[in-house]
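Workshop exercise sheet. Pairs work together: one partner reads the sequence aloud, the other fills in the structure field after running the prediction. Swap roles for the next sheet.
Pair: D.N. / O.F.
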Amino acid sequence: MHADRSNRVMLTLLGLLVLTAGAAAMAASTGVFGASFSRQALLANHVGAYFGDHGGWLWPAIAGGCLLIALACLRWILALLASTDRAGDIIIGGSTDEGTTILRPAALIDALTSEVSAYHGVASAKGRIIGDGRDPEVVLTVITAPTTDLRALHHRIEAEALAHARQAIGNPSLPIQLYLA
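Structure field:
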């Protein structure tokens, strides 16, 4: 599972759990579940008595649930540490008659960011290649000077640097995400 997706799912579930618990506590304190329930002490209620009467099987079941939560958290951490969306080597051409050329993603990104960084009005440029090496996608972030004409810079980047990148890979429809800031 992709790390970003894991983060969103786990944080959404945690947020919903905390929101539900908070809403239930607020509803109980205002008397939604009955006036007598809102005046009871937290542990001196039916839930506490139930835990006392059925502790022989209930606590091991809770421990099992906590173990499942701990395993899910471990899976989450492993997804964060081991997951990467960066592409491997880019394969150019694939026909056995023509041969296969392997392009390192760093070489393409270095050439692209060097070209864009040399443009007037660009303070810095950074990029990365994501996806599969056979079907890569370029993500390019360009930090501009405050007085830069963004429309003209965008047009120049599209017409020159991104066209050069597409030509280098031999893929005129290479997906490129361009962020100007």
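Discussion prompt: The longest strand covers residues 122-132. What would you look at next?
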